Amino acid sequence: MRPADLAPVEVLGIRKPHGTRLRYMAGCRCLPCRAANSNYETMRAKRRRIGLWNGLVKAGQARRHMLYLSRVGVGRRTVGQIARISDSVLFKIRSGQRKQIRALTEKAILSVTPGAVRGSSLVSAKSTWRKIGWLLEEGFTKAELAKRMGSKANVPALQLNRERITATNARKIEAIWRSVN
Q: Is residue 1, in this structure, part of any structural domain at all?
């Protein structure tokens, strides 16, 4: 969307020297301005051919992918770090405020996989609690599991939420479970 306070291209282009695309867009058809426009269009076509087209696309697919990643424990900030997109842009895409985004932004978001779960990301605790249940049936105590997870408390206790836990804690339980299995 064009800002309301931006001057029309005719006004902006008049101030530019000949041989620039903006001057061509303002209506000048001299040889240097036509060459500048031709060069721009040639480069644009080349970038399209090699997959670097960066036009506007609907944000729906990126939004759905971000919601999916969120469900599996990859948050907006993690997506931003991996895809190198600002948090504010990702927030607007995820919330639906942005209806269109650049193609390369969409490509960067879609390249983030569920494997990008960071240690502090919250993930479903369902499978972890199944493994804890199995370990308890095998004779482990919750205090022993807490110690093996690295608890330094005098009286270690297993304190994990039943719904969501950090990816780090899920990995620790997974490691204990694998060492016994």
A: no
